[in-house]
Amino acid sequence: MKQLIKKFAILTLAVALLATTTITAKAAEGEHVVVIKSVSVKKVNKEGEAWDINNGAPDLMVVVRNSSERDSKEFKTEEKEDTYSANFNAVTTVKLRADQELTIEVIDVDAVNNDLIGKMTRKFTAEELKEGKVELKNFGQVIRLELEIKSLK
């Protein structure tokens, strides 16, 4: 009898694992990952002043998250110091499906308080995800932000 119960428990566990794998695969269908390619910002902040002391350029960082998903964690790029434009080519951990919103922030990283350079929340269509490249222009002091959207098929 113990042997039969043990076999039943193993069979039940195997079925549960198989079901979980199938559900996970279906949930990932249509998902894409966001790649932060590059950003360019204006030479002055919204007050018309230099970003940092001594007429310094900003230390750029981009933060993204899927604002349609309650449990979505934000992704932060590495900081690019003293520049008005930066190439990141950062593959994020942010997943995105059609008609979901992505919140994007471009930040000047400072020792005490970071400065917001630009922020945008935007819904992405199935066509944009299929095309795979998105260029966002003129939000806040951001001139241009280039994203790549890769399918997780």
Describe the structure concisely for a colleague:
The protein has 153 residues and is an alpha+beta fold.
Q: Describe it for me?
A:
With 153 residues, the chain is an alpha+beta fold. It is 22% helix and 44% strand. The chain has helices at 2-28, 126-131; strands at residues 32-41, 60-66, 75-76, 85-96, 100-108, 115-124, 133-139, 142-151. It has a four-stranded antiparallel beta sheet with strand order 4-1-8-7. A four-stranded antiparallel beta sheet has the order 3-2-5-6. Strand 5 (100-108) and strand 6 (115-124) form a beta hairpin. It is elongated. The termini are far apart. The model is unreliable at 11-27 (pLDDT under 50).
Question: What would the keywords be for this entry?
Answer:
4-stranded antiparallel sheet; 153 residues; alpha+beta; 8 strands; 2 helices
Topology:
Blueprint: H1 2-28, E1 32-41, E2 60-66, E3 75-76, E4 85-96, E5 100-108, E6 115-124, H2 126-131, E7 133-139, E8 142-151
Antiparallel strand pairs: 1-4, 1-8, 2-3, 2-5, 5-6, 7-8
Number of helices: 2
Oligomer: single chain
Strand content: 35-45%
- Please give the number of β-strands: 8
> Could you tell me the radius of gyration in angstroms?
21 Å
Reported for the largest beta sheet, the result is: 4 strands, antiparallel
* First-last Cα distance: 45 Å
In terms of structural class, how would the helical and strand content be classed?
alpha+beta
